[in-house]
Amino acid sequence: MATKTYAGKTVQVNDEGFMTNPAEWDREIAMEIAKEEGIDPLTDAHWKVIDFCRAEGTKTGKAPTLRQITTGTGLSTKELFTLFPKGPAKKVAHISGLGKPEGCV
Q: Can you tell me the distance from the alpha carbon of 90 to that of 22, in angstroms, rounded to the nearest whole number?
């Protein structure tokens, strides 16, 4: 398994760069992954989505879908695309330290 270093911490990642052990995640790591994704700084609105995804991921063992995120956060799909351009479910899963969402290309 490959590893990557974020915020001075080495984490396990798959071949697409998604963390494979969500327990290794923390907010500093999230901020560095967000920068890689071109999202900087993370605002309160970003954290609302990230925190929701982390909670859902902990409950279900997988990253939530776009529909689950919009329903759970009360944000529209358009708002999510504004916060996380070009594939919000995939980007927020990556930043949240969760695996790639099912159904994402």
A: 15
Active site residue 104: yes
Residue-wise pLDDT tens digits, 37-49: 999 999 999 999 9
Inform me whether the pLDDT recorded for 100 exceeds 70: yes
Element (H, E) at 5: strand 2-6
Which of 4, 79, 100, 104 is labelled catalytic?
104
| pLDDT for residue 33 | 98
**What is the Cβ-side half-sphere exposure of residue 93, based on CA atoms within 13 angstroms?**
25
> Torsion angle of alpha carbons 87, 93, 95, 97, nearest 10°?
-160
- What is the overall mean pLDDT for the chain? 95
CB 3 within 8 A of CB 19: no
Residue indicated by tokens 């999510």: 80
Would you say 58 and 25 are in contact if contact means Cβ atoms under 8 Å apart?
Answer: no
Query: Token digits for 57?
Result: 């991921």
Distance of alpha carbon 2 from the chain centroid: 19
